[in-house]
Amino acid sequence: MSSDVRLDALNAWLERVLPAPISSIAPATSDASFRRYFRITLAGDVALPADGTPVRTLIAMDAPPAQEDSASFVAVAALLAAAGVHAPTVHAQDLSAGFLLLSDLGTRTYRDALDDATAPALYRDACSALIAWQLASRDSVLPRYDEAMLARELAIFPDWYVARHLGVTLTVAQRETLDSAFRQVLDSALKQPLVYVHRDFHSRNLMVTQPNPGVLDFQGAVYGPISYDLVSLLRDAYIDWSEEQELDWTVRYWERAREAQLPVAEDFGDFWRDFEWMGVQRHLKIVGIFARLAHRDGKHGYLADIPRVMRYLRRACDRYRALGPLLQLLDELEARQPVVGYTF
Hints:
Strands 1-2-3-5-4 form a five-stranded antiparallel sheet, sandwiched between helices. A two-stranded antiparallel ribbon has the order 6-9. A two-stranded antiparallel sheet has the order 7-8. It is globular, with a radius of gyration of 21 Å. It folds into two domains: about 5-105, Phosphorylase Kinase, domain 1, CATH 3.30.200.20; about 110-335, Aminoglycoside phosphotransferase (APH), C-terminal lobe (Aminoglycoside 3'-phosphotransferase, Chain: A, domain 2, Alpha-Beta Complex). The protein contains eleven helices and nine strands. It is an alpha+beta fold. Helices cover about 45% and strands about 15% of the residues.
């Protein structure tokens, strides 16, 4: 007898909503949340009402209502589609149970596909989708990525990385240094123009599809700083590039965003600073989240990606005099010798 009560309930729901018998059901992807995804293979090709295109496979999402908000997934999927961005189509839903039936965007992620040869075209497509998404922005549609939310994310770093992962209790002086850095990072983020923000626009959530890319894991979308999603894309926790390449792609995005009349800074140097300081907020959060996933949820694989994220964080702090105390604190926490090389 199966002990997976939710999977049993999902199977029963699928039998009611699917227009053809299931040939097989198998886990589709892993996730850093409570959501689970299953690839459903049907016994034959079926034309679904959404667009009439024959399909053989679909994706079933299991999102326990006590932990996940499926309604936000449905709402943001509609916003992405309206913006011309390729997101999964919702074919059926039971929000009270936390079940969704989605179109299948395939199995090849950007993370799987990216290399020196493919990266220019894939990132060009990703930036096209990002600009389309940002151009669709309207106030009062998505939650505001406000100071309270940004600050809650920053708090994950001392709570989970410093205290739980490193086992360090901050001194009064160290806590003051961290709080001062947080204040500066928040002020920088809150000065940026606001657009729709995916919040995890990176290589594991972008699929190689036609049209390209397919976009996943967008249910946490907000209305926030314009540089945020570009940081997610180009300072990716799961893959990195030379700084020269990263800078080139950032310039290309900025030029296209200006042509599209998005509210990016008129001077690229100002936009680059916004990008880097936004990255400090995001990377402090990610380091904390990866530690939390390991110590709270038993997902220890994310710890292997912390050094990459810390390199992004250190590189930005090393470039700006105002972030020097934060870099020194990171050195103290990880027993490193301080290296100072401010540019600004």
